[in-house]
Design a protein that fits this description.
The protein is mainly alpha-helical and 113 residues long. The protein is 77% helix and 0% strand.
Length: 113
């Protein structure tokens, strides 16, 4: 896995925290942290998409961020557990993994990844 895919995964991980921040921020510092996470997360995603296929990068970014946010809600914020939600999350993750597997490592010739 090259540096750009690592950027996508870090961006998706940060997305989990800024989405939670959008719901739970309550003062200047929590909003500041949320905004910083949004900027860093999107910067990483955008720089990765300059080398990798943009549609695949965005789908993986959003898919992993969505799955992580739902899991965090279940584990830390008392969201109700439903098997249907888990099955749909697993389906989403299979799609994200599938996109990653069928996307070539070097999407553009001559660009160092």
């Amino acid at each position: 896995m090259n540096r750009n895919w690592i950027k996508v995964f870090i961006a998706a991980f940060l997305e989990i925290f800024w989405v939670i921040g959008l719901t739970h921020a309550y003062d200047f510092w929590t909003w500041t942290g949320t905004i910083i996470l949004i900027v860093v997360s999107n910067y990483l995603m955008i720089t990765a998409a300059q080398v990798l296929p943009a549609g695949t990068v965005y789908a993986i970014f959003v898919g992993l961020g969505t799955a992580g946010t739902v899991i965090a809600e279940l584990l830390f914020f008392g969201e109700s557990f439903k098997w249907g939600k888990i099955i749909l999350l697993i389906t989403l993750l299979f799609g994200v993994i599938g996109l990653k597997l069928v996307t070539p490592e070097k999407a553009k010739e001559g660009v160092e990844s």
